[in-house]
Design goal:
Blueprint lengths: L11 E4 L3 H12 L4 E4 L7 H5 L6 E4 L7 E2 L7 H6 L2 H10 L4 E3 L4 E4 L4 H13 L3 E3 L4 E7 L2 E6 L3 E4 L1 E4 L14 H8 L4 E7 L3 E2 L2 H6 L7 E8 L2 E9 L3 E3 H8 L8 E4 L6 H11 L5 H6 L4 H11 L13 H12 L1 E3 L3 E2 L7 E6 L10 E2 L2 E6 L7 E2 L4 H14 L3
Parallel strand pairs: 1-2, 1-11, 2-7, 11-22
Antiparallel strand pairs: 3-6, 4-23, 5-6, 8-9, 9-10, 12-20, 13-16, 13-19, 14-15, 14-17, 15-16, 17-18, 21-22
Helix pairs in contact: 1-5, 1-13, 9-12
Bound molecules: flavin-adenine dinucleotide.
């Protein structure tokens, strides 16, 4: 979309042209508000473009408040109920964008993420929204009838100021702590932040043990802190990734172990006993290789119980089977850490929801100042929930600015 310039001063300035900022701009523009969006990067919507492996997992059919992490689990309910996944899907349909459900309600573009960004920009255009890129905001001050902003290009004034600058993930895509600093400037509490939906790193000895497994994936059940996910786990040259581990990273705290069941689809003890009866001559490693990738079976047996590897099932006692079950179904793994903001998809924590109205997203102590999207302490699970939060919070705020 061509960049535009405003001759009149805008009613609303939105800082951050990501998912939440653009959606807010559309909703406010449609109400006849003069909207200016300021983006410090050279392009808008960079995270939309890189999302979902380039196909943007733009929402989830089953979005519900339980899919979000926040100090206040109730905060997200109002906005999510006023602009639902079905409202966003209707918009996608209106623009003729082809999409499909990949799994678990996750909706992806058939073609490219660019389709979603183009849709948002077309809606911005139709609503008369002005967007300026490569503009950095310096000083922000509250004045009698709104806010005064100093940018690299101008001094601007507005009645309503919306902070949609996102979280800290992927700094090279334009992420900054601007929203948190501004919140603090106006006396709002900011909860501690940490990277989430991020691969785990492993200690040097585990990395060495798993060196030959890079690229191997397995359907696992992983649990930690009372939360459980059944998804794929992927070994990488740095540690463990894949949807199961990305999901778990949002609930894991440094120093904790995660429990992994690499044979979640079966009662291991019962199956081993049955196999001992039906195929007594096969070895433990051959039995495992029939249920796990051969490399993974060999590597885990070598690591945990090399003496059982070549033992025939007929020669195994029930105690051996119990040991195998414990090792493979209750694997206690202590990650070394995570890959951090460099590769995290989202940021946990942020501007405390207690400081912001769940209806309009205005700061309780500062009329005219709004916070939306990922900058708030609301973090979705993997699967399109983070975009749905950006759309819903942006839309709700756009009704009120
Ligand atoms: C690799 C990757 C893949 C992802 N895939 C998915 C997915 O498929 N589905 C899903 O639901 N979620 C996905 N996410 C998460 C999702 O992208 C974010 O949760 C979502 O973009 C948050 O929207 P937002 O508008 O709050 O913030 P952002 O989209 O991050 O937008 C914030 C904008 O503010 C700008 N900005 C920052 N600081 C300043 C400043 N000081 N001045 C001006 N502008 C500023 C940034 O450049 C950016 O354009 C993914 C994230 C990553 C990193």
């Amino acid at each position: 979309m061509p960049e535009q310039s405003t001759s009149q001063s805008p009613d609303v300035i939105i800082i951050g042209a990501g998912a939440a900022g653009l959606m807010c701009a559309i909703a406010a523009g449609q109400r006849g508000r003069r909207v200016l969006v300021l983006e410090h990067a050279n392009k808008v919507g960079k995270k939309i473009l890189m999302s979902g492996g380039g196909r943007c997992n733009f929402t989830n059919l089953f979005t519900a408040p339980d899919n979000f992490i926040s100090a206040n689990q109730h905060f997200c309910k109002s906005a999510l109920s006023r602009f639902t996944q079905h409202d966003f899907i209707a918009l996608v349909h209106k623009h003729g964008i082809a999409f499909h459900e990949k799994k678990l309600g996750q909706l992806f573009c058939d073609n490219k993420s660019r389709d979603i960004l183009n849709m948002l920009l077309a809606e911005c255009d139709a609503a008369g929204v002005c967007i300026q890129t490569s503009v950095s905001v310096g000083k922000v001050q509250a004045v009698s009838d709104g806010f005064q902003l100093t940018t690299t290009t101008a001094s601007l004034q507005c009645q309503s100021l919306v902070i949609a600058t996102g979280g800290l993930s992927i700094p090279k895509m334009g992420a900054t702590g601007f929203g948190y600093a501004l919140a603090k400037q106006f006396g709002l509490q900011v909860l501690p932040t940490s990277p989430a939906l991020v691969p785990f790193t492993l200690s040097a000895d585990l990395l060495q043990a798993f060196a030959g497994l890079s690229g191997v994936s397995a359907a696992v059940e992983v649990s930690c802190n009372g939360v459980r996910f059944s998804e794929n786990m992927l070994f990488t040259h740095r540690g463990l990734s894949g949807p199961a581990m990305l999901q778990m990273s949002s609930y894991w705290r440094p120093g904790a172990s995660v429990e992994i069941n690499v044979l979640p689809q079966m009662d291991v003890l019962a199956e081993l006993r049955k196999a001992r009866q039906n195929s007594p001559k096969i070895t433990v490693s051959a039995w495992l290789a029939a249920h796990l990738s051969k490399n993974l079976a060999r590597c885990l047996l070598q690591l945990w119980c090399p003496q059982l590897q070549d033992q025939r099932l007929a020669d195994c006692a029930d105690a051996d089977f119990s040991k195998l079950q414990r090792l493979f179904c209750q694997w206690q793994l202590k990650p070394n850490g995570t890959e951090g903001y460099r590769t995290a998809e989202v940021t946990l924590g942020g501007v405390a929801t207690a400081e912001v109205s769940s209806k309009s997203f205005v700061a309780r102590n500062q009329p005219g100042l709004y916070f939306i999207g990922e900058v708030l302490d609301v973090t979705g699970q993997l699967g399109g929930y983070n975009f749905q939060w950006a759309w819903a919070s942006g839309h709700a705020c756009g009704q009120c600015v």
